[in-house]
Amino acid sequence: MLIRAFILGSLIAAVTAPRQAAAQSGASTVQPTSVVPNPAGSPRVKRVSISKSVFGDAGIIVNARDDGFIEVAAAGPKKTVLIQLRTMAARGWVDSTLRMLRARPRRSNTPRAFRSEIEEYGSSTTMAMNRKVTAGESEYSLFFTDDPLAGFTIPIEKSEADVFVAVVRRAVATAVKMLEKTDSTAAPKDSVVKKAPAKKPAAKRAAPPPAKAPTQGQPKTTPPAPVKP
């Protein structure tokens, strides 16, 4: 328990370090896009913890963020790797990994290896799920690296592989909801609400003066009678 607490504690420090990832796309071996540094004055990224668990001999932390990214930090025997992935890329990796885990290869004594990996663009940081099948028996492992020459592999059970993929899927769903909420509440900077000009009240027409009644003693004038021929 003390070893697990120490591993998770070191992971928390690695995850909270300021670092901005890039957009990525694709499935299976996912091809990402570009890395853009966090500009000065930009709002701070909000994180939601999805999982803090130990898989095999390594501690792994998975976070969702409100900027459309998820974070996966893994602490191996000698190093810690932090990978940040766009939700679209992570969703593609989840779909590809599920297909690999559910596949039923033909029974053979010749070992067959399957791999589903995703890479963070702009660096050598990679996360992968491996499956090796020999005579109908499967072995599973997770792989993390931020250097082509210095990665580490974590042997895991089938149940742990299923749990890890489910955790990443939940992180993707949470990050998507957070991003939608952020977009709906943030007002565009260039939008200005203009008030409609107030209409002037129509000018009231003065009522015509009432007709004067004839005064007493004043004879009423009557039109003359027509003259008969």
Question: TL;DR?
Answer:
The chain has 3 helices and 10 strands, in the order αββββββαββββα. The chain has 229 residues and is α+β, with helices and mostly antiparallel strands.
How would you describe what is shown here?
The protein starts with a helix and ends in a 44-residue tail after the last helix. With 229 residues, it is of the alpha+beta class. Strand 7 and strand 8 (126-134) form a beta hairpin. Helices cover 25% and strands 31% of the residues.
Number of strands: 10
SS content category: alpha+beta
Poorly predicted runs:
1-7, 15-42
Largest sheet: 4 strands, antiparallel
Q: DSSP helix count?
A: 3
- Percent strand: 25-35%
State the strand order across the main sheet.
3-4-5-6
Tell me roughly what share of residues is in helical segments.
25-40%
CATH architecture: 2-Layer Sandwich
Query: Given the C-alpha coordinates, what overall shape results?
Result: elongated
The H-and-E topology, N to C, reads as: HEEEEEEHEEEEH
Radius of gyration: 37 Å
